[in-house]
Amino acid sequence: MQRITVEEFRNSEKIPLIVILDNVRSLNNVGSVFRTSDAFRVAAVCLCGITATPPHPEIHKTALGAEESVEWFYYENTVELVDKLHKENYIIYAIEQVENSISLLDLQLDKNKKYAVILGNEVKGVQQAVVDRCDESIEIPQYGTKHSLNVSVTAGLVIWDFFKQLF
Prior knowledge:
Elements: H1 6-11, E1 15-22, H2 27-39, E2 42-48, H3 57-63, H4 66-69, E3 72-75, H5 78-87, E4 90-95, E5 102-103, E6 114-120, H6 128-133, E7 136-139, H7 151-166
Parallel strand pairs: 1-2, 1-6, 2-3, 4-6, 4-7, 5-7
Helix pairs in contact: 2-3, 2-7
């Protein structure tokens, strides 16, 4: 299968993307985001607010060890993290259904820039104060009767799209 070791992963080239989880409740969702971030070489995962942090058996159950390969950080306040990343020249997107959002289908990225995406709470979404600080919001077009996706599914779609454009 040509899998790399954790050490090889840590030393490998990453896509210029940070995934931020804003008050995500489900430890299974957190673990899944770690696993997807490992698969597509995300630079880091930031866990904010009530989002649980490793080590935790429920995160490990879905992450399958990716919480050990992917660099991660904890921040109590998501707004402060967004402000910090702006100072470091990140372009920051909330993944949220809001007025004037851009469709994931229309997203055009620049390989020379750094990005962060923010995924929110399973019920309330990304905090409005955080959305207000983002450069833009991205919406995933949906054509069925439901107009929401699970956080980990959303992360997978978004991370894959960033990977295709940036790797």
